[in-house]
Each structure stands twice: as C-alpha cells, then as structure tokens.
Amino acid sequence: VAKKILSKRIIGIEYRNQYFEKILCNELEETENIHTYPAFYKNFFYPQDGAFFYVASTKNALPHPNMEPAWITLSKINKETLDFEWVKYYGGGNYYYQVMTIEQARDGGIFLTGTRAYLQNEERIESVVIIKTDTEGNFPLSIDNHPAEMQSQFTVFPNPGQDLRIEASVEGALLELYNLNGQLIHTQSLGSGLNSINTDQLPPATYIYRISLKNDLIGSGKWVKM
Asked: Sheet harboring 9-16: ordered strands across?
C-alpha cells in the first residue's frame, strides 16, 4: 500500500510476484481534488482467514501543519480482485484527523489509532484518537485524549463504581454509553450540575462513555461498573 503522486495523491494497492513484477493493482481515488495518504506507521492488515483485507488512510492529508477538515478512512478490499468492497470515513467536522496504525482486535474487529487537531486562540491543540469498529466498519467506538480545558467541563465518578454520576459545568450535553462490542446501550441528556445515570440494568463490566455538545465530542473514556 502506498501513495501515488499524480495531479493529486491517491492510495495505490499492488500485488507483485517474487521477481517484483506487477500482477494486479487498484487505486482509491477520491472524487474531490484532495490528497490521500496511507496510515503513517501501519496501513493495512491481511487476515489469514476470509476473502478480504483492510487498509487505513487519511483523506485530505495535506502538508503539516494543516487545519482543514480531514478524515480517517477505512477500506475493505477483496483479496482476489483488489476491488473495494466499501470505504468508510470517520472524523471531519472542524477537526483535522490523521491515522497512524490499524490493528485487528481479538474479537475480529478493527482498531484505528491516530490524532485529532484543532485551533484554539491560534494554537494547534492535538489529542490521541482510538476507534474500534466491527469487520464491516460499523458501530465506531472512540476514545480521545482530550485537552484538560475540555475535560474540565465534566467529572465522571465513581470510577470504578456501581452507580454512575456526571458533574457537568455546561447545559445540554449528550451522554452515550457503549459496551466493548460497540453497541450503544444508553443515552441521556445532561444538565448543568450533578447528573445520575441509571445503570441498574448493566452487568459488571467495562464501558465506553462519550459526551458531546452541539454535535462536537467534548470527552470520552472508560467507566468500570463493579
């Protein structure tokens, strides 16, 4: 997997024999006039079983520093034909996402790691992003290492604990709670002040919480129910 430099940069995939002769190739070319780069450290994984493999890339990856919207891209590709089964995008908005690695999860799903950047008072702020999907790229879970000024808008406690409470300093945020399979199991609007979350029906386990405000993710992490 590599980038191909034309009038714009696109993702190219090739099969070559032992003599390095090209025997099959295909390309992912975006419709927009933008640059696409493979993941920085590890850009694909090739399962021994099954008919497909997966490639990670960044859509709209321009020279650093760049503050235009960018997306983490996941492609499912046929091993025999190199045809793209599907291509899915995560990110965008007012953020610049860049993918670093792709790994296979123990349950057969996919882990994508990368960074997310935005401007605050003309300063570039970066955070770590981890996304988990199933084999079809669905039910994305992500954990962002948010800057302290964003995390300070809420407090999640006790952690671990039997009950979940969230102290919020803003009104109108939305809580989403997922299990580790990526299934959304609870949503709740958060008011300013102390919010009690009903977790009586949840078995003891580790869960992922995501808190958003006006469609922007302002915090995420793990909560352990005892």
From this structure: 2-5, 9-16, 22-28
On whether both 35 and 126 belong to a single domain, the answer is yes
Residue 7 pLDDT > 50, yes or no?
no
DSSP code for 62: P
SS3 184: strand
What are the pLDDT digits (tens) for 146-195? Answer: 555 455 578 888 888 889 999 888 899 999 998 877 788 999 999 998 99
pLDDT confidence band for 102 (50 / 70 / 90): very high
Distance of CA 177 to the CA centre of its chain: 16
Q: Count Cα atoms within 13 angstroms, Cβ side, for 71.
A: 14
Residue 225 DSSP code: E
Pairing of strands 110-120, 96-104: antiparallel
Q: Do 15 and 93 belong to one domain?
A: yes
Size of the chain, expressed as the number of residues it contains: 226
- Give the CB-side neighbour count of residue 225, counting CA atoms within 13 A: 20
Q: Which domain holds residue 111?
A: 1-144
Rounded to two decimals, the pTM is 0.62
pLDDT at 6 over 50: no
pLDDT, mean of residues 191-216: 87
Beta bridge partners of 101: 113
Residue 73 pairs in a beta bridge with 57, 89
End residue of a domain, out of 144, 167, 198: 144
DSSP letter at 149 equals: H
